[in-house]
Design brief:
Elements lengths: L8 E11 L5 E12 L8 H7 L7 E7 H5 L7 E5 L13 E5 L5 E9 L3 E5 L8 E13 L2 H6 L18
Antiparallel strand pairs: 1-2, 1-8, 3-8, 4-7, 5-6, 6-7
Length: 169
């Protein structure tokens, strides 16, 4: 009998996030993402709630309103400037720029548009204002080890070493 996702279980999964309107994949995690359910929520709480009771091999779709997770778009976080005022290393759409306010708060902005004269950056989370679908594939579910419970996720594997090979130098 396979184990199901519940508090204290170590879960490995992959996922992708698609735009509900266009169907375009916005982001994806193709390598196994491991966490301890109920101890280290690596995704939105509404996504974790839908994983309860699922087992290895299950694929689920969870629709999410980005406004509920990231808030509504704030157009005051969108800036356009003359391209000559922007360092050359930031002149590529998709580039992330960490900026600091006068109060010392930092925020990540993404270059969203560029032409011969101007460059536009956006400090909104790319998912706010969108309806998205998380498509998750559960790869494995098992009891978490004590170390994993304490860490809230995967712990670094230690190499197997035959003790007879260790000797004082």
């Amino acid at each position: 009998m396979s184990q199901t996702i519940q508090d204290g279980k170590f879960v490995e999964l992959t996922y992708r996030v698609t735009d509900r309107k266009s169907g375009h994949v916005l982001t994806r995690v193709d390598f196994p993402l491991g966490y301890v359910h109920g101890h280290n929520e690596v995704l939105a709480p509404s996504v974790h709630g839908q994983l309860e009771g699922r087992a290895a091999g299950d694929v689920i779709e969870v629709p999410i309103d980005g406004n509920l997770i990231f808030g509504p778009r704030d157009e005051s976080l969108v800036f356009t400037d003359h391209i000559d005022n922007v360092p050359p290393e930031y002149r590529q759409v998709g580039t992330s720029i960490l900026m600091e306010s006068d109060q010392g708060q930092t925020r990540s902005f993404i270059v969203t548009r560029m032409d011969d004269e101007t460059l536009t950056v956006d400090g909104n989370n790319p998912l706010c204002g969108r309806e998205v679908v998380f498509i998750l594939e559960v790869l494995s579910v098992r009891d978490a080890t004590g170390d994993e419970m304490q860490a809230g996720g995967a712990t670094a594997a230690q190499p197997d070493v035959d003790p007879s090979l260790l000797r004082a130098v």
